[in-house]
Specification:
two-stranded antiparallel sheet, 10 helices, binds zinc ion, AKAP95
Length: about 200
């Protein structure tokens, strides 16, 4: 990539990041996410469970149906998401814990975009409310639609393409990355962060 292009892109990323932080605070950059399923959590166990859940598998199946990506591509998309989680974990563990602990008394309902007290009764009441059920149906539909867009945009990204080529050759492109220049690594991170934005732009 040419130096000029790279610089322009970096500027764009910087502006975007400032806008995000202004709008959502620093929180979303520290949480663990699955950009396909619109899942975001502070708990590493929760996201790990998510990656092996039926729900996540169904999203991947849906993406594959819509995009006609082959099995290898779908496996790559999944591995990309898991590797991003591992990186977030190693880099931001301490900060994440601090930020997340302060949020522990409240649970965020992604479908309703609201916070509810995390007591069992209030969560149960919320899950059974007609507002929640209606929001959830809408949310699921949006999530399904956007998972396809996210997957497609990831696979058209030139950095991801290069990574996928390695993956096809049986190499582990996620490990190699660490050895690449810090700059490239930051780019890759930012690109993946961009994917996360789909679940913030609601
Ligand atoms: Zn998922
Ligand atoms: Zn809800």
């Amino acid at each position: 990539m040419e130096e000029k292009q790279r610089k322009a892109r970096r500027e764009k990323q910087k502006r975007r990041r400032e806008k995000e932080i202004e709008k959502y605070g620093d929180m979303h950059r520290l949480a663990f996410t699955c950009a396909f399923c619109k899942v975001r959590t502070c708990e590493d166990k929760e996201i790990e469970e998510h990656f092996s859940s039926t729900f996540h598998q169904q999203t991947l199946t849906h993406i594959q149906k819509q995009t006609k990506f082959d099995d290898k591509t779908i496996a790559f998309l999944h591995d990309s998401m898991v590797s991003k989680f591992r990186k977030t974990m190693s880099r931001k563990r301490v900060v994440t814990e601090e930020v997340c602990l302060s949020k522990v008394e409240m649970i965020h309902c992604m479908a309703c975009r609201t916070h509810i007290p995390s007591s069992l009764i209030s969560v149960q009441n919320h899950l059974q409310s007609s507002d929640h059920l209606k929001n959830k149906a809408e949310f699921t539909e949006t999530q399904r639609r956007e998972s396809v867009l996210t997957a497609t945009s990831i696979m058209t990204n030139p950095i991801v393409k290069a990574r996928f080529d390695k993956y096809l050759k049986g190499k582990n492109p996620f490990e190699d990355e660490v050895k690449e220049t810090a700059e490239d690594d930051q780019d890759a991170q930012d690109d993946q962060a961009e994917c996360d934005l789909t679940d913030l732009n609601e």
